[in-house]
């Protein structure tokens, strides 16, 4: 069975962006050996334009072949006139407001997104990359098999949480931690079953 991985950027106090969802405060840290990690070990998670800029657009996917993201995340691409931001992956966008996909490569999921993810998990293939945001992660909380948290060395005080969901304790076990020269940590947690 395929796994759903929530691969997300976060501040040290657990926010994935400012109150408006913006992650611009993290961009200054995408450099050095951390950028090399993204380029060589996590290129599946990079937007297609980023893959092209880093010269890895032709690298085959090894970890993920499918992405699901929320409408607000997708809107960032649409604002830049990009209708298929992850063209190297099968793209799904969870949205109740977008009724028709602006791109034939992007499928809109307007119904039960958790049911769609369970269906995708049953298919053959690589993992499913949950790109965000908080509302979608909250809806998919029970389906998340793995958390990969890129923790940036900043505290935001307030902002968008990792999960917009009711209080509940979900147990995960630490699988790995990796530190980079600029202070970024990448921690991987596996859901306790």
Q: Care to describe what's here?
A:
The protein has 5 helices and 10 strands; from the N terminus they run ββααβαββαβαββββ. It is α/β, with parallel strands linked by helices. It has a single domain (4-8, 15-173), classed as Dihydrofolate Reductase, subunit A (3-Layer(aba) Sandwich), CATH 3.40.430.10. The two termini are 14 Å apart. This is Dihydrofolate reductase family protein.
What's the name of the CATH homologous superfamily? Dihydrofolate Reductase, subunit A
Radius of gyration: 16 Å
> CATH topology, anyone?
Dihydrofolate Reductase, subunit A
- What count of domains describes the coordinates? 1
Q: Write down the secondary-structure element order.
A: EEHHEHEEHEHEEEE
Q: Can you give the mean pLDDT?
A: 95
Shape: globular
**Number of helical regions:** 5
Low-confidence stretches: none
Major beta sheet summary: 8 strands, mixed
Organism: Streptomyces achmelvichensis
Protein name: Dihydrofolate reductase family protein
């Amino acid at each position: 069975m395929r796994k759903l991985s929530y691969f997300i950027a976060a501040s040290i106090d657990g926010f994935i962006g400012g109150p408006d969802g913006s992650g611009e405060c993290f961009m200054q840290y995408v450099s050095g050996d951390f950028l090399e990690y993204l380029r060589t070990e996590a290129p599946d998670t990079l937007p297609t334009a980023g893959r092209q800029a880093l010269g890895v657009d032709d690298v085959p996917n090894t970890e993920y072949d499918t992405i699901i993201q929320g409408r607000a995340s997708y809107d960032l691409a649409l604002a830049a006139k990009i209708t298929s931001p992850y063209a190297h992956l099968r793209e799904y966008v969870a949205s109740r407001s977008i009724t028709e996909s602006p791109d034939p490569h992007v499928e809109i999921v307007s119904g039960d997104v958790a049911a769609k993810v369970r269906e995708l998990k049953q298919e053959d293939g690589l993992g499913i990359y949950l790109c965000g945001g908080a509302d979608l992660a909250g809806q998919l909380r029970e389906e998340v098999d793995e958390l990969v948290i890129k923790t940036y060395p900043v505290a935001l005080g307030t902002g968008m949480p990792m999960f917009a969901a009711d209080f509940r304790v979900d147990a995960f076990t630490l699988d790995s931690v990796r530190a980079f020269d600029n202070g970024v940590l990448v921690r991987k947690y596996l859901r306790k079953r």
